[in-house]
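RECORD TYPE: protein structure
NAME: Glutathione S-transferase omega-like 2
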Amino acid sequence: MFAFVGVGPCPQELSAGVGGLERAAAAVRTERKQRNISRCSTAGSVLCRKRGVVALFPKFRGTRVICKERSRDEISPRAEDNSARMDANLPSTSADTSSSALDEDRNVSGQNGKTGLKLPLRLGILERGAAFAALVSFARFFWKSIWLIMMNELAPSSAKGEYQRPPSAFRGRISRELGAEFPVPQAAEGTVTGRYMLYVGLSCPWCHRVLLVRALLGMEHLLDVQLLEPSPSGVWRLCNPTSDAAKENERTVRDTYRKFAPSYRGRCTAPLLVDTHTGRIVSNESADIVRMLCELQVLPQQQTAKAVLDQSIKAAPISGISIMWGNRGGGQPADPAHKDSSAGRSTDSGLDELLQRIYSDINNGVYRAGFATTQSAHEEASRSLFSALDAMEARLQATGGPFLLGTQLSEADVFLFPTVFRLDAVYATLFRCATKRICSGNDYPHLWAWARRIYQMPGVPEVSDLEGTRTAYFTSLFPLNPGMIVPVGPFPDFSLPLND
Ligand SMILES: N[C@@H](CCC(=O)N[C@@H](CS)C(=O)NCC(=O)O)C(=O)O
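PREDICTED:
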């Protein structure tokens, strides 16, 4: 016989009929009094038939600690009848020995570095046999119900457990068109920064695609950037807010939405593009922002014409890089009212299909796999993810690269890269997308070479932060990783040299 005993005024422990426990409890009560411990466990005691330990769980300054733990070998075979022996194993009433026992045991109980909470007792339920089956079932049911509620808050899902991404609410564009709602700002003293502000978190793949295009096209002059980081509660908060933002109490992206769209009640997602001149939100849809930058890019063949036609945008230092874009978006369905400008747009409808597949099966596909709340939803998403990646591998092999369309960089490359960049290091473990690996070079040799090529393009490493991304994902998606432990690897090295 052994017991877990609460040392508070718990009726069960005294009525347990276990010889010596009354004295044990009395000893700890005296101890508590001497040490001025005001609160104590009222959780009661649990008696088990199996051999094991005697443990006392006082609440010490409000925190439950294991106060004493002894194996059966250390106590007499009839501990319940051997009160003298029991006393010897319990904290004595002497201040010195009892405090060392408590201190030692407090160390044993461990510390959670983040919250400062002492870790709780261990009941060892799974070792206790059939008597605990009901308790285990109840705990599982309770835990899963809470998990489903939390998952649904994090990622709304259908009745079949399939993740359903909420639509983006703001779909405006910065445009060169006459009378545009959000015009390209006039150059002032050689710079046009200062009007549009892009709120982005480096860990977010949707922000990453926007930052990639901004960097590749050298359009930093058009959009200022306010960096965000995820807070432990999962809300984006501003890193080093400007003095204006601080003055207006703009600390999180939620505050930003409130400031620029007071009546908005939806998800406060990043990326977010705002017009600081009119105080309005331009867009919170990454595919639209990418498309907008592609449309505003100075294509090599346009450079002379552009210098004449449009003095408003400083010639971008594009060093020959241009990004081909499709007819439709690589994100949520685009605004049908919007007409793309045609220069630089692909006439090949294959690009649209490619963009659509990359979005639904890969970019959103990893989220559909990771946020699925049923086995079938996860399997479906995972299968379509890897079959789409197989198709990308085959395409790169067929075209001979270096890009998905062959020699022309396109939206397809900038949309695919952020997901491939995170696949091994984050999604494989956190979202259970581990069927194949990119960085091993065995499953996807062409994709692995392609990813390193994209990473090694000018400006890309500066906006691609794998270490920060891993930490952000593993510590901010609480329902997926409540322990918030960040795995040690894998850690693909995208800077490895290319052989060709
Ligand atoms: N459709 C949006 C999706 C953006 C998105 O889901 N962003 C995530 C970060 S990776 C976010 O801000 N989530 C916060 C939330 O859902 O509350 C886009 O592509 O721009």
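COMMENT: Residues 361 and 385 are 5 Å apart (CA to CA).
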